[in-house]
């Protein structure tokens, strides 16, 4: 079973590229971030035509996450990360799909730092850790995917110096991500690429794509019950080079049935 994550950077702007990817790669579950669309204006019919059922947690103009499931509807869909009833940003959705519990998230960027946006990022990560601990304790197969907006280690960025002041690789961000892993989660791409050098994002500016100046911020985390089923994981890098592409490439993990 292939589970994929794709920060699409505007579902309407990238719709042809997204449908192209779905038809060519056909993941069983596709988790989208930064859809930048409200629920009622999300182009669900376009995905239903090619066999995908849709669940969204949208927001006008920015943020927003969606689940696309091949051939069946996701069940027990929950929208919003628990822990702060005043947080209205659409960044989190979870559901049961074909014996798996799927979590799809778009973690706050945190820039500029220091400041309130960075504080929000760290508080959000602490709430996420609490929810992920609950899921670990349930002892069910869980996959947590999305744009984490964290560069975990120096090996995950083309230039440490270029990004050293960015919220994505501050010690506090990295420590919060490391605490998630230490609780018992497996980073699928890192496990299969221990030397690093795998990018998932290339900025639109300064010829980053053409120069391969990227970094890894899109992650696929597996509970122990899923880690035992890990077969492969990777990045569909070529889709970043297509016309009107997102600045992220899709990432995916294959689990044995």
TrEMBL record:
The lineage of its organism: Bacteria, Pseudomonadati, Pseudomonadota, Alphaproteobacteria, Sphingomonadales. This is Exodeoxyribonuclease III. The active site is at residues 106, 147, 248. Probably binds two magnesium or manganese ions per subunit. Its cofactor is Mg(2+); Mn(2+). Signal peptide: none annotated. Mg(2+) binds at residues 7, 34, 147, 149, 247-248. It comes from Altericroceibacterium spongiae. The record marks 218 as: Important for catalytic activity. The record marks 248 as: Interaction with DNA substrate. NCBIfam families: exoDNase_III, xth.
